[in-house]
Amino acid sequence: MDFNFSDEQNMVRDGISRLVREQYDWDTRRGIIASDAGWSPEFWAQLAELGMLAAPFSEEDGGFGGGAVETMLIMEEFGKGLVVEPFIPSVVCAGGFLKHAGTAAQKEEYLSAIIAGEKVFAFAYAEPQGRYDLANLTTTAKKDGEGFSLNGQKAVVIGAPWASHFVVTARTSGGQTDANGVSVFVVAKDAAGVSLRDYATVDGRRASEVYFENVSVSADALIGELDGGLPLIETVVDEATAAVCAEATGAMQVTHAMTLEYAKQRKQFGVPISSFQVLQHRMVDMFMEYEQSISMSYLATIKLDENAAARKHAVSSAKVRVGQSARFVGQSAVQTHGGMGVTDETAVGSYFKRLSIIESEFGSVDHHMRRHIKLTAAA
Amino acid sequence: MNLEFTAEENAFRDEVRSFIENNYPQNIERAAVQDDMTPEDMTAWHKILGEKGWSVPAWPEQYGGTGWTPTQRYIWSEENARVNAVMPLPFGVAMVGPVIYTFGNEEQKAKHLPGIKSGNTWWCQGYSEPGAGSDLASLKTTAVRDGDDYILNGQKTWTTLAQHADWGFFLCRTDPDAPKPQQGISFILVDMNTPGIEVRPIKLIDGGYEVNEVWLTDVRVPAENLIGEENKGWTYAKFLLAHERSGIAGVARSKRGVEQLKDIAKHEMLDGEPLIQDMGFATKISQLEIDLAALEITELRTLAGEQAGKGPGPESSLLKVKGTEIQQRLTELTLEAVGYYGTPDFRSFPADGSNDFPIGPDYAHSAAPTYFNMRKTSIYGGSNEIQRNIITKMVLGL
User: What's the predicted TM-score (pTM) here?
Assistant: First the structure.
């Protein structure tokens, strides 16, 4: 048993921690999310330059030989700063598909560009009718000569306005919710027939509804097996879920720290409100919640490389625990801040909103509880 | 013990239902966030009810009340909730109105009560300050007597919808040397158009502007605007807070919210079935309905006590705590129900007016802002921690 990080991992963590502290302070972030673009391509370029976008990839793939632990460390620090840039969509998701199933040519064309920050991907998988079911797809890719013709709508595609490319899941055969018949494609955003409706999200990011109308997709844009893409999608989404759990633990730690700080300086009835036992115990509960979440974030990360059943079990366990903690910590922080907690000007409200959306990202507490129940029943 | 309505009460229900159906403005629906509505829309129903004589049912009849029994008032709020009616704002009707007819003089009653009844005067509540929230009695805004006037200086905050207010009721310190902070406070009515008042809207986490900072700089207010006696304002403030709490349970509105949640859960699909068929989610809805039923009967018991002559007392703190917990739970479940379409910020949607490519179902747009906004309910009107302290002290005697 060893919960220590390697020297290299500590270097990644220290580097990203310093970068977020120095380059992504609260006012800078406010400026970034209020800007027309809604993100900072300069910050992204800096991440690429520092090798952070290469951290979770093997040396053969152009990375530093890291993996899920590096992703976890980076996302925890991003969570502390509420970084909006698309590390999960571009590096964890698109990078993950290419890492696991990309051909040499695909890696050459896309993965090296992702690592260099030159191409930015979004992951278009959710659909209006599909809830959190990854196989519930009405987007279709029909054989068309050598390639495919893509039609359909993807919902709430995070980071789509910033992306140059999408990884798109689509049905290539079978019924709407069949496990078989699902395939994964790379589609350039500027391909003919792709249109977007962009918007902001309530937690300070940008997203789009993405529409595909008779989009021509070449045969070499297929990632992995034709019709057999679902296990690959599940693997990558589990990796992304573990990453968002790590992000939540970072956000929760900062939320807790600022709540503690506020309670110490805010005086009512002539004393700091931190002297009231009812508030002390709430802050103790917040502490216990995020400590438990850190443990589950570690568990999910460590189990990502095990067999599918063990991986899913651990990831769903983590997402349930983290989702519940995210709600408790976010709500408790707002309550302890009183009126200040519901204003837009204080940081705590933004942390609360991000934590609230993390609850449902890559599957809600209920969704992962159901998956946990099914896995337990099948074991 | 009998929970059935009498024949008279059922006839009353039919009467008010038909009045609402025939007179409620068709195009006005409660918005998720209050400032998304125009001031005209927020007061439209109030004005219609003012003409009908139904805008202040709970007031004594001599001041314009309807003389309805608590049961009738309960039926009235139920029927309004059925159509999601935008009810009269509480600041005049439920807060300062009862203070004026209970503690005000005849001139004050004559001057202010008609505008509250008609809905023509918009009131705001100048209570909280940056340093005086839960510890309201530590407020620092001063009112210094100068001839026939008071001069007000200080800053109020969280003043709901003050940006539209014609008048405000302010708690001010008139005796800084009183032995207890509660003893030096006065209750003063202020014309919001008086020079020296600056209203600065506060942006909230849902993106709306419901509340304001109100800055008072040498605001000259006629001394005749003092309610009751100087330095006795705390008594009136506490009276008002008890009134505020009794309406705060929001049972009728929560019942309406549960119905809306069920509608959403019928539309949202999970594994090929409506979400409402899922045992996990259905259990949560049922739990909410059960908690709401308990709250409803508790409120009816309180109303019955009122009918028997007991004023709203510390038990109204129970209604506030449980009512707001239910309101918040409702918004949690609604956000859960809409799935990914809770994430888009509807305020940022492309303004091309096109409905060709809707961004998720309409009912999803308000889910997250409402969830964020309703966190305020366990904070305002005396935080839920303070309410529990009140029960500890006043009910349990600890």
Answer: 0.95
| A257 within a domain of the structure (yes/no) | yes
Instruction: Give ∠ CA A9-A15-A21 in degrees, rounded to 5.
Output: 135
Strand partners, B42: none
Regarding whether A115 and A101 lie in a shared domain, the answer is yes
Helix spans in chain A (H): 7-23, 26-34, 41-49, 68-81, 95-101, 104-106, 112-116, 230-265, 277-303, 308-337, 347-358, 365-378
Whether A171 and A298 map to the same domain: the answer is: no
Other C-beta atoms lying within 10 Å of the C-beta of residue A220: 13
On the 0-12 / 13-18 / 19+ scale of CB atoms within 10 A, B363 is middle
Q: What kind of fold does domain B248-346+359-395 have according to CATH? A: Butyryl-CoA Dehydrogenase, subunit A; domain 3 (1.20.140)
Nearest to B203 among A270, A344, A370 (CB): A344
Average pLDDT in the B148-159 region?
A: 97
DSSP annotation of A266: -
Contacts of B332 in chain A (CB under 8 A): 327
Query: What type of residue is A162?
Result: W
pLDDT tier, B240 (very low <50, low <70, confident <90, very high otherwise): confident
Cβ-contact A309, A317 below 8 angstroms:
no
Q: How confident is the model at residue B316 (pLDDT cuts 50, 70, 90)?
A: confident
Active site residue B61: no
Cβ contact, residue pair A343, B344, below 8 Å: no
How many Cβ atoms from other residues are within 10 Å of residue A25's Cβ? 11
A165 Cβ contact partners less than 8 Å away, ≥ 6 residues apart: A94, A110, A119, A120, A121, A122, A186, A187, A188, A189
Class of domain B7-88: mainly alpha
Residue of B244, B296, B299, B336 marked active site: B244
Indicate the pLDDT class of residue B30, thresholds 50, 70 and 90.
low
Model confidence pLDDT, tens digit, residues A11-52: 999 999 999 999 999 999 999 999 999 999 999 999 999 999
Q: pLDDT at residue A179 above 70?
A: yes
Asked if the C-beta of A335 comes within 8 angstroms of chain B's C-beta atoms, the answer is yes
Q: Which of A123, A202, A281 to mutate to test the interface with B (most CBs of B within 10 A)?
A: A202
Q: How far is A60 from chain B (nearest CA, A)?
A: 36
Q: Is B381 on the interface with A (CB under 8 A)?
A: no
| A168 in Cβ contact with A226 (< 8 Å) | no
What range does the domain containing A312 cover?
A: 231-378
CB B158, CB B203: distance < 8 Å: no
Q: What is the ipTM of this complex?
A: 0.96
